[in-house]
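Before our next group meeting I need something from you. Please put the record directly below this note.
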Amino acid sequence: MANAIAGVGTTFERWSGSAWQFIAEINAIEGPTMNKENIEVTALDTDGGYDEFITGFMEGGTLTLNMNFTRSGYELMKQDFEIDVARDYRITLPDDEDTTLEFEGLVIEIPLTMEAEDKLTVDVTIQVTGEVALASAGGGGQSWESYFSTRTPTGLVLTVLSDTSVKVDWTDAAVAADGLKVYFNDVLIDTVAFGVGTTTVTGLTAGTAYTVKVVAYKGLYESDPITMIVETTTYESYISGDADLIAFYRMDEQSGAVFEDKTGNYDAAINGGITLSVENNYVKEPIMSDAATFDGASGYAVIGDVAALRFARTDPFTVTAIIKPNTIRTGTTNTDYWIYTKANTSAPYQGLLIGVRWNYHVTEWNPAQCTVWVQFGANYPTQWLGFKSKQVDVQSGQNYLLTVTYDGSAVVAGLKAYLNGWELVTNDMEPGVLSQTIAAGEDTTTSGINAEIGRRGSIEKWFKGDIKDLAIFGTCKSGQWVRKLNVLAKCYDPIYSVTPTPKIFYDLDIDSDIDDVVDVLVALNLEHNNEIELIGAVVTATGVKAAACLYAILNYYGRTDLPIGVNTDAVGFENDLYNSAVVTAYGVTGKLTSTDFESYLITQRRELSAQSDASVEYITTGDLSSVKGLIDSTADGYSALSGIDLIKAKIKHLWIVGGNWPRGAAISDFGGTAPRAVISDYVLDNWPLEVPIIFVPINEGNDVEVGETVMEALSVNNPAKLAWESYFGDSLPTNTRPGWSQIAFLAIARGLYNQQTTATKYAGIVGHKGTASINTTTGVTAWDSNVNGGHNYLWKIETDANFITKINELIKDATEW
């Protein structure tokens, strides 16, 4: 039987620069008339009596479109006729392979034909320039999209230089384009030559969010963009532009006798041993990054008895400063290092004191460790609020953003302390001694007492070390405000940015808690929205029905093509509160037990080796035994690389959902019995430095309670609904579970603060480039910010309520797709 096809159904399209545009009402297409130059090389000694030829250049020829005249079609062709650069065109044939012919061309003729008794037509002639590429939906050839896939830039980094300027950096693709274009809110701002990789944009509006796009271009055509949101807010303007600001001391003076108050009201007089203009690398702004060093013996600054700083028991306030203490001590005397005080030094003790304390009697501490130390009251100890962090939170020689807030409630619960944006919640301040309340009528205002920086009045308790950016506000700032301040202050080097459709390899322990089932639903719905691409999964669980439960859910959502491997040597928890019920009701024949699935190492190595370099986000929500297995793996039929080299080649980041950071009991998969902690510690010690680890702390998800109503709204036939109800033992619509891992999925799909693709500020990366460690006996975590181990941890910036809303929106039944 003949395989000929009719021409009807053939389409012609032009590339607009961002999408293919269909050109309607074409009657006939002639061409492209490809031809090849031939060069006669017949010589006197040619044999056989025939001329001889060799080939020269090939030519795409011309293409003629016979079109019915339509205003829209003619305008497009006329537009192409009037430009001086080639445009991309595509012919798609109506065969089974959807064969396409793609080429660049110049419109050189557009004559109209008008006859009295016939329709208006136009014959468009296009001169082909370059190759005519043969491609199809089934592969082969090179499409325009694939052409630009090798030219799309990566690694977009946005640095806010001021309230009106932003530095844009990126990495050009290996294959050259004509250049790069930079857009702010879809307005072309700059055109940059290929290979430059940077530009600075000025003249922006302060306090404004901009969507920044960078694209490669060739002629009129542009690649897929890399996109981020940037807000023109600097650390300094975030503070100085606040309506509740009372005083702000940058303390970056090069010389002089005062610390200037940036509000213009209350300059602080410098006294004693203070060294100015000390380089401090905590705030990485382009200007004003210096600090003042206090000698711990005579250096302090006097603000004075300012009425605005006389805080009554019901007055809310916030005090924040960047500190770098020098607190190494020995001996048998507690030592206070006061940062900001407005308190009298004799009975009745009154006022506010903020500092850190070195305690000699806590034997497990080393000589460089202190606690945060905050007091506010009217009469010590009967009308007194006190907060002292129980854990060792401050170490000598490290930079910290210390923030203290008070809500005016006159109870200790209203007095909060934050270190680098993290709320300190364990209070060890003289239990049973302080009243921790202030009764009505008690005076805390300290009229007649000076506010001081670096000392507590005549008691001469000094601060020793660097202080910078002391700011005082007449309101109680929220935890979200403090966290954003921390992100802006650190101006960390971004390590994560969203690229089009992040690729995720998912490592989960679906037999330990129902949150894993919610993770699966969120991931599948993000993938359905084209926000992520799932490339493989490993079930790190000892339960024999765990992988089968995952497969049943994937079957319901039409994703049984997702490769799944099993690690039954996991050291996590096994509860089977829902797996068996799901497999009994919805199990798929041939996928009913762990032995029906391949080894996790096969899945890991095969799927990773098939991906482009540095493209995979590996997220693990269970114990780390499968990650350890990947580290220790060796060359196989899928890749000649060792496990370490395969990780370095293919994985962009490792996301670990677990632990408490910067320190604390892990609660989750790190702690408890020794095997989990030992394996976790092994992973942290052996994971390659070149591939950053991003921790998602357990306590970040504890209050993100998701699933209310939406899980019960799933179809009665949805295996995930049965799992949910089996876990809780009922079908109450009010049931919820923490969204620990879902926070990570949103960050991966939608980005982090200053790097996200939507205006929502989901989360930020803090503790940038530190080193995490785990006590192999107890599982307690610790953090060393002085050593770059490539470790980082995530904090929410968006509110818990908004996280819950966003996650619940992603818990949808397949029938809603």
